[in-house]
Design a protein that fits this description.
single chain; alpha/beta; Rossmann fold; 6-stranded parallel β-sheet
């Protein structure tokens, strides 16, 4: 069932799903604390289907992530967690044999996965590493970025070593707000050396494919809070997805989403996984979702009815704008359409 279904009966996003794959930051928690309604909603989903977690955050191991999730109230083991360091090390194995020395920019999450795979970890370019692996950790600073730049000075096409980044998320949600993510750190090295990293995590498909294979998913659903990594990655991997508005991307980003980053479902919070998902109906130039209705008139987007639930207005607006095939910059959009009432932190 998709966002624009006109004839299917109202089903929940979980109907027919055998594995729920969830992002963590902005979906399950922000910082150390759980987001409202996330734990009980996921536990309810897990009573009848498998739960797995996919994270671009490279600062922690799968075991430490699983422990954190258990502390929040989820029934999680390390094998339930697919991390971007795991995906990065798999990519590395295609290019550099185990036993080689690898320069790490990042924290324990990368170090543990490299050592499990049989690589030697260094922090110095003077050790002549065979590759550079870069991932987020709060302690990463200038000295680590500089060592990466020294090691990557020679372009790979001229005999230089591979550079693999766990992910390039520009931001990361924290309890105090939105902080710079690994993408900013990768960009700093790129600016210094003029090279591009190979990316292992979302939005690349490899990390999703690993999760589907690990959990034996036949009909998975992926939950994310970012259009440019979570939802784009799910689209690339051919997975249905739900964007939940408890993290990074806001209603205005949903309205502007390009075709390769559009979710199957739009949720205000994870409770809506268990609610019938309303269909979008179109009559002439008006798109309706339950009590909310939006009309397109040339470059103008008009709110016909706001309805009783703000999430339905966002759904109606997205359906109407996306159906035109035109970019958001071609419209005059009333601010009420993307009014943000969904932050729950």
């Amino acid at each position: 069932m998709g966002l624009f279904s006109k004839s299917a009966p109202a089903r929940t996003p979980l109907d027919g799903v055998d594995v729920v794959l969830a992002d963590l930051d902005g979906v399950v928690y922000a910082g150390a604390g759980a987001l409202p309604h996330a734990i009980e909603s996921l536990n309810a989903a897990g009573r009848t289907r498998r739960l797995g977690y996919i994270t671009n955050n490279a600062s922690r191991t799968d075991a430490s992530v699983a422990m954190h999730l258990r502390e929040l109230g989820l029934h999680t083991e390390p094998a339930d967690v697919v991390t971007s360091p795991q995906a990065a090390v798999r990519l590395l194995g295609d290019r550099v044999a185990p036993g080689a020395t690898v320069l790490v920019v990042g924290g324990e999450g990368l170090v543990v996965e490299l050592e499990k795979a049989g690589y030697i970890v260094t922090r110095s370019a003077d050790d002549r590493p065979a590759a550079v692996l870069q991932g987020f950790a709060p302690e990463v600073g200038w000295s680590q970025l500089a060592e990466a730049a020294y090691a990557l000075a020679l372009p790979e096409e001229e005999g230089g070593i591979p550079w693999i980044a766990t992910n390039t998320d520009w931001t990361i949600p924290q309890a105090r707000g939105i902080a710079p993510g690994n993408g900013t750190l990768v960009s700093a090295v790129h600016t210094a050396v003029g090279r591009l990293a190979t990316v292992a995590g979302k939005p690349e498909a490899a990390i999703f494919q690993e999760a589907v294979a690990r959990f034996g998913a036949q009909h998975p659903l992926f939950l994310g809070d970012r259009l440019d990594t979570d939802i784009m990655g799910a689209v690339r991997a051919g997975l249905p997805s739900a964007l939940v508005l408890t993290g990074i991307d806001r209603p205005k980003h949903v309205l502007a989403a390009p075709p390769d980053s559009r979710p199957t479902y739009i949720l205000g919070d994870l409770r809506e996984l268990h609610e019938p998902y309303p269909e979008s109906t179109v009559h002439g130039d008006t798109t309706t979702v339950r009590g909310a209705a939006v009309r397109i008139d040339g470059p103008d987007v008009h709110i016909v009815r706001e309805g009783d639930r703000p999430i339905d207005l966002v759904r109606a607006g997205a359906a109407a704008i996306w159906a035109t095939g035109r970019g958001i910059f071609g419209f005059r959009v009333p601010e009420r359409l993307y009014r943000d009432t969904f932050h729950t932190r």
